[in-house]
Amino acid sequence: MTKKVVISGVGLWTPEHVITNEELVASYNAYADKFNAENAAQINAGTVAAKPHSSAEFIEKASGIKQRYIYRKEGALDVERMRPVIPERQDEELSHQGEIALEAAKKALAAANKSPEDIDAVIVSCAYTQRAYPAIAIEVQNQLGIKGFGFDMLVACSAATFGMHRAWEMVASGNARAVLVINPELVSPQVNYTDRDSHFIFGDVATATVVESEDTANSDHVFSVLSTKAVTSFSNNIRSNFGYISRAHDVDPYGEDKLFHQAGRKVFKEVCPMAADHIEAHLASHSFTPADVRRWWLHQANINMNLLIAKRLLGRDATADEAPIVLDRYANTASAGSVIAFALHHQDLQSGDVGVLCSFGAGYSIGSLVIQKQ
Ligand code: CO8
Fold it and tell me: Which residues are catalytic?
């Protein structure tokens, strides 16, 4: 028998440290000046490209981002370093990513009115895990004293929605009563702070949701998951080549192509229509049209992308109330963006209101859930 599945709680953990556009640009520009001075001969000979200045106005206009949170600020703005300082922890200590996952998980459990004994599985789903094994999910499972099982999965921008899809399947099939899905997006170590095109894009955060059977849900804000829908389509336009095989390749494991890089314009042009078509088809499978949707919790990569997708769907601009933006404060938080939007903007929905949670990006990958307030 297929069980009815709900999202009964959401948790959001926000780092205490902030980097504003102005701080970020001042650091990058100082780095660029130093780089250009040190490489003046090669730049003049045309063998090395000069690094152009970045600008806070460009960043806000092109992306909607005004600031980003960062797990550890030290080092990221230091022109001699340009990456955060995150001291290595011993095997006996809770890992950095486990720590932020745990914070979000506790909040989601409290919101869902659930205790660890109620949970049968833990999924940590995000853009990067800080190690291969043991899984971060099993570490969090252990910290919370949850029985059952846990595993990690990586789907870049769509990790959160794809994780919820797996949770939906487990609960619908009766294999789990409740699943904790956690998205500890500790992405700052992968950001190339010396690259003008991408240094502004990302921020750190952790989100979590409790996905459970409708039979057991007893929280204040319960959303029926009407269905999930996913698609992937291979693209080289967003890549991170970091991985264990660099050791055997005899290449720099931290070289520029090993960090996040993208052809942002192409991504913009290709992903917007894909995402809008995907959402429209998903809604149509329930005989809904975009006009029936009370709230859109869209992936948060770029404000212009969100505005365009919403306009394509609605035939008009969406209001901030209909399609909330959290990018200005959080920047792009890989897969967690749509979950942050959901965490901050779901409590005012009325019984029967329909919402769409949707991610889109690297892979390419698109994942959506059509949900309804009970
Ligand atoms: N300051 C000043 N000027 C700049 C800057 C800057 N910082 N950066 C670029 N410019 C310049 C460019 O060089 C260009 O100059 P010119 O016209 O002379 O060539 C001009 O500004 C315009 O550049 P673009 O055309 O690139 O600018 P866009 O308007 O396209 O904006 C964006 C760039 C913001 C990157 C935009 O293209 C975008 O957001 N695209 C979509 C990207 C997207 O969604 N990517 C998905 C991200 S992946 C993801 O979400 C999860 C991945 C996993 C997590 C990774 C964690 C590290």
Answer: 157
